[in-house]
Design goal:
The structure is a homodimer of 383-residue chains.
Chain A (H helix, E strand, L loop, with lengths): L1 E5 L6 H10 L3 E6 L2 H9 L10 H12 L3 E5 L6 H11 L3 E4 L6 H5 L2 H25 L4 E7 L14 E6 L2 E6 L7 H20 L2 E7 L1 E3 L25 H11 L3 E4 L5 E6 H13 L7 E6 L2 E4 H14 L6 E4 L17 H5 L8 H13 L17
Parallel strand pairs in A: 1-2, 1-4, 2-3, 4-5, 5-8, 8-12, 9-11, 10-14
Antiparallel strand pairs in A: 6-7, 11-13
């Protein structure tokens, strides 16, 4: 299959390009490298050095014999270049990771909020028009986030909700309560994409992904020439990465607020498989299909306890601290998301086992000389 | 009350500024005049010449003795100028009309879609941040549209919906099914604004307005120095204005498709009163309040028949033609919106009487030499 991966320099875009290429798909990846600029701006550095995309593509070719094609395109600002790339490559599917991906970044200031929504919403709009113009049959697989839903007091369904109201019934887009300007940008994207399916017959799978953990996939291993990013700082890091690095740095694991915040999680290996499944079983023409891409749920407290326990078994002296929550969010809430669609297509989850946590801790040990504990504590508040 | 009106040069922004000023409020209006550029771009001209805003402000001062303050500010692109204006004026309320307001315009091309969403969403984001920074207690009255809801198969509520789902209950933003990139921009605005209320305690009233008709309000009368715009072309015009002009031009009234499309309508005089009521009874801190701002519903067929009947009684020879629908929309559907909140606050509706239609037809007669029938037929298709 000819697959275009947008955002191929990123944490998931790079492994996704490799994973698909390893399975014999023809991959073209586009990236503008703006994420690397954003990281510099906020002083975020991945735990291990991430080689340039060119370097990694070359290393992958040497290792595997597979080519990954590549173009520098900024989809938010270069719609013509995007059209040109798609017209030439004629993808059967497009996997769209090319968005600003940090909630705290989007909350830092007006400039950051506007930049995030402009980049993400206009980029996706440009993409919709480019597909319509150059490859209208292509299946668009768009990365969304479980955070779009927020924490409603009813079960979270997969994108759509059957509503009974005053004796009548309709199937509607699931009503969302996103928690940051970043999450809102994804909500806007989803609304625009559903419209494209309805009006133009586009085919879209919106993957509302949970928090992804894991520093590598099988194809990449721990080769320094191939590795993807692992962020643990307050802006681009995740809670689990932060805890892992804090264990190794011998500082307290910092839980925001009371720690009852519960979210869906999934292993980076499962992310790859989910995308593959979406590609193998594409949305129909005119279908706006939504999958909740998670395999299990944890509260922040449970996550911290898990990482601390594994760390201690490895000889570290992990301890947990509660710090004021920089976010505005419920710290105790109902959370019951549905996530059966991808299982029904064949996903076999790799859960957050002690072994998986151990692997991440060992990654942090290997790169402990690069840990910058000052970058971990939150500086951006929501209120 | 100190009220800042954004988009004070527009069809409703200008009468709103005058209406509030006539009632003793201190009005500052901001406009970038970009709407006039958009009109030129698509060859749209209002039926009667609309004098410059400066000219009209001067004419209003001469007539009434009331001052309307004015600054040229582009809220989508000049966030600092917006902050400066609000910081100096310290409004107690802001009425926000400053958006690209045409569905067909937004559907013309990628450039138009992106321009519409960028202008509207970024403008409103800039406004949220400006309010937060300079006048956090100000009540923001935002013009939305009934078109955000689309035509669901359940009753349309006022912005929020009580959902019972699998034995649990929540109050959620009403799920929307907008019909153009313009309508989507307003949906995105509403989502951003609800977040601002939830996170920062902003106070917002989102007025989901139906199609407004009427060429003037009492304070403006038919004075050529004061008049507001009346668009009847395919891009910026409304169906009712189109029918009125077609009656006078002695060409068939063009109904799109089967004509069963039903929408909510309201008189321009009621728009003014609704905004006044929203200002007099403001949203509470942290409240995202939504009113459906309509007074009655008509199908396009019913509307065309009504205008034709009044026209014929005035001696015209009105006849109705069905033309292919340029839009993608249901032409027969359920439609039952709730609109009691503004009535509960004291709105006394002025309905679409024969007299009201007569007034618009007479307006078209007075300016019949300026009618350009070529501008009426749709050139922009949805599909």
């Amino acid at each position: 299959m000819r697959v275009c991966v947008l955002g191929g320099d990123g944490y998931l875009g790079w492994p996704c390009s490799v994973y698909l290429s390893a399975r014999g798909h023809q991959v073209l990846t586009l990236d503008s490298f703006i994420k690397r600029e954003w990281e510099k701006k906020v002083g975020s550095e991945p735990l291990a050095v991430v080689k340039s995309l060119e370097h990694r593509i070359e290393a992958w070719r040497t290792l595997s014999g597979h080519d990954i094609a590549f173009r520098v395109v900024d989809i938010a600002n270069e719609p013509e270049a995007l059209c040109d790339a798609l017209a030439t490559f004629q993808p059967e599917a497009i996997v769209h990771f090319a968005e600003q991906c940090s909630a705290p970044y989007s909350m830092a200031s007006r400039v950051h909020a506007v930049e995030t929504q402009r980049n993400n919403v206009m980029g996706t709009l440009n993409l919709m028009f480019a597909v319509r113009e150059t490859c209208p049959e292509a299946h668009l697989v768009k990365l969304g986030t479980m955070g779009e839903y927020g924490t409603p007091n009813i079960d979270i369904e997969e994108g759509w909700l059957e509503v009974d109201h005053k004796g009548r019934r309709d199937r509607v887009l699931y009503p969302k309560r996103p928690g940051s300007f970043y999450h809102l940008s994804k909500v806007h994207d989803s609304a625009n994409l559903e419209f494209g399916c309805r009006i133009w017959g586009q085919r879209v799978t919106d993957l509302n992904q949970g928090v992804v953990y894991g520093h590598t996939i099988e194809e990449l291993g721990d080769a320094p020439d191939l590795g993807t990013s692992f962020h643990y700082d307050a802006t681009f890091g995740t809670a689990i990465n932060r805890f892992v690095v804090q264990v190794v740095a011998d500082v307290p694991l910092t839980v925001y607020g009371r720690g009852g915040q519960t979210r869906g999680y999934l292993n980076i290996r499962d992310t790859m498989r989910c995308i593959e499944l979406a590609l193998l079983f594409p949305a129909k023409r005119g279908e706006f299909r939504v999958f909740n891409q998670i395999t299990e749920n944890f509260s922040v407290n449970a996550l911290a306890a898990k990482v601390a326990r594994v760390g201690n078994a490895m000889g570290f002296r992990a301890r947990i601290d509660h710090i004021p929550n920089p976010r505005v969010e419920l710290e105790e809430h109902y959370y019951n998301p549905t996530y059966t669609a991808l299982r029904d297509l064949g996903l076999e989850p790799h859960l957050l086992t002690d072994r998986a946590i151990e692997g991440m801790i060992l990654h942090a040990v290997r790169h402990r000389h690069r840990i910058n504990v000052d970058s971990i504590l939150p500086k951006i508040g929501w209120a």
